[in-house]
Amino acid sequence: MSDLAAFVRGLPKAELHLHLEGTLEPELKFKLAQRNGIELPEKTVDEVKQTYQFHDLTSFLQVYYPAMRVLLEPADFHDLAFDYLTKAHAQGVRHVEMFFDPQAHTGRGVPFATVIDGYRSAIVRARREFGISAELILCFLRDYSAEYAMATLLEALPYRDWIVGVGLDSDERGNPPSKFAAVFARARREGFLLTMHCDIDQQDSIEHIRQALEDIAVDRLDHGTNIVEDDRLVELAKGRGIGLTCCPVSNSFVTTLMKSDEIVALLDRGLTVTINSDDPAYFGAYAADNYVALAEHAGLDLDQLVALAKNSFRASWITPGRLDAFLREIDDYVAANR
Ligand code: HPA
Ligand code: ZN
User: Which residues hold Zn(2+) (predicted)?
Assistant: First the structure.
């Protein structure tokens, strides 16, 4: 491991843009298929990886959703989340706010309770076994109707203590934030924090970011990197302390570039930019790997890496007391390891 990679691994970090269903590694996919008596068309890890041919968000999602059919029982969701939390812990992640896509499961007959019971048991176990803290963010699939999203929100209400916020993911094309205005307003009234994807280089990216910030009044923006094209929105996000959850390696799969110039420009302009892995099993890079990839690509210095790690806690939804403690831990780590 390089000095840079070792430094980044040890640096306390939060991860704020992580899809649990995007952590399904081929090995676990085979194990769950076998456990559930499901025949897979691919027979080896290499064959699975050969299907990972993405050139945009849509082509990624066409691989991402079908893989989920091996997830059926609470134990499957537990294993998925626990494996991820184990890897995140090994990468120096101390706190994580994880997306899950209930409709990708309820839509194929798996009950909401099965999904959330499995995820929750992994969170409790990981906290006990290695001290990592984790929260769940329920994402609505934006290519389904607003009515289905509302029904999913209502289905989640009995579990509200296990869910910190709601988000919006899946195919953005033709599915603007405004489509879900009533769902997000209800979620806010129910006490959830709000975030949503504004993916990279979408049709109407800037208008979607504007809607998310001004009309929905989100607490955070997922990706959102195209905001760099609009000075007014940059100032608005900065004034409100809105965190941006950037995902450099993911960007290099669904567009042509990591968007490292844009990410660094936003950091330099004082936005609360954070670095995350998105769907690490598909993009081959977990949290620390994303810091290293960006650092190598953009030539980040140590101070910039430390600023990104601090931002990850500032943009998170932890209490002020825990935030202060993590920021002090980072300072101590830097003093001891610089
Ligand atoms: N964008 C939209 N939908 C997704 C993503 C993403 O980055 N990852 C998993 N589902
Ligand atoms: Zn995402």
Answer: 17, 19, 197, 278
